[in-house]
Write a structure and sequence with these properties.
The chain is an alpha/beta fold. It folds into two domains: 188 residues, Rossmann fold (3-Layer(aba) Sandwich); 59 residues, CAC2371-like domains (S-adenosyl-L-methionine-dependent methyltransferases), CATH 2.20.130. It is built from six helices and eleven strands. The strands form two sheets. The chain has a seven-stranded mixed sheet with strand order 3-2-1-4-5-11-10, with helices on both faces. Strands 6-7-8-9 form a four-stranded antiparallel sheet, with helices on one face. A hairpin with a 2-residue loop joins β6 and β7. The protein is globular, with a radius of gyration of 18 Å. The structure holds S-adenosylmethionine.
């Protein structure tokens, strides 16, 4: 599992502009949150790449992840950060926090849900964790394009400090299982000449825009705020918008969880 090797995971995903992504969240909060935001929760936080940028902006960072190795790596990496981050072991399909947060987010498609019942229990958990008026931001979690249309292979190659990582991703539908897909990752690492290959297979439910809107509209405890393209809050998504990264914001209402 690449997730058991956080250092290589970080290199593989280091192509992102973390500062611009944190700035997007801050502007989203300023424009759309109905409550002041002091604390934020990242779902599937991994090595918590946004923790420093968000702490610099004055937010208290809380990360939730299933993988102990990732959490230990993040805790060590950000041990001197102020305000100090909290890193919690838990499953996004069913978790609870000791106290509520003002904002929640999930990055780079890390919504690992396999069924309608996972989707419901995930939003039930977010509803309990998030104060009314607070936002839930989802990066690349809604499929504005068919994942299998990537078809053959997606290949990313990144090199940092003498570590080269080549990731290859293939997505294919699970036969006779509705909107369930299998994602196969092959990751080749060259760490200063030492070579390793990691393979991962994941099954996830694709969430399409219309179904997601209907799901949110049916709930009393969330309302749809909007969706935007490519880290630009001036690029609202309409039919025909050219999108690389679809970004979605919903808001916790005062309504009760069903
Ligand atoms: C693609 S990484 C994203 C890490 C980080 N958010 C980022 O932006 O780089 C996905 C993370 O989700 C975690 N994860 C997978 N399934 C999970 C679950 N059911 N509950 C909580 N975390 C999960 C993995 O351990 C991994 O650290």
């Amino acid at each position: 599992m690449l997730y058991d090797h956080p250092k290589y995971y970080e290199v593989a995903f280091s192509f992102r502009d973390i500062s611009a992504e944190a700035a997007f969240m801050q502007t989203g909060i300023e424009r759309h949150s109905r409550i002041p935001v002091h604390s934020l929760l990242e779902i599937g936080c991994g090595p918590a790449p946004h923790a420093e940028e968000l702490a610099r902006r004055g937010y208290r960072y809380i990360g939730l992840d299933l993988n102990r190795t990732m959490l230990d790596y993040a805790a060590d990496k950000w041990r001197d950060l102020h305000p100090a981050p909290s890193l919690i072991e838990g499953d996004m399909t069913d978790f609870s926090l000791d106290s509520q947060v003002d904002f929640a987010f999930v990055m780079i498609g890390s919504l690992y849900l396999r069924s309608e019942s996972h989707l419901r229990s995930h939003f039930d958990a977010i509803a309990k964790a998030l104060r009314p008026g607070g936002l839930y931001f989802l990066d690349w979690c809604i499929q504005f394009f068919d994942p299998t249309a990537w078809d053959d292979k997606l290949v990313f190659q990144v090199e940092e400090n003498g570590i080269a990582v080549r990731s290859q991703i293939r997505v294919r539908p699970v036969e006779s299982a509705g909107n369930l897909f299998e994602e196969f990752w092959t990751v080749d690492v060259d760490d200063h000449g030492r070579r390793e290959r990691y393979k991962m297979a994941e099954r996830n439910m694709a969430l399409y825009p219309r179904e997601f809107r209907e799901f949110i509209d049916r709930r009393k405890d969330f309302e749809f705020v909007g969706w935007w393209a490519d880290w630009d809050l001036d690029r609202f998504i309409h039919d025909g918008t050219n999108i690389d990264r679809p970004l979605v914001i919903v808001r916790r209402t005062a309504g009760s969880t069903p």
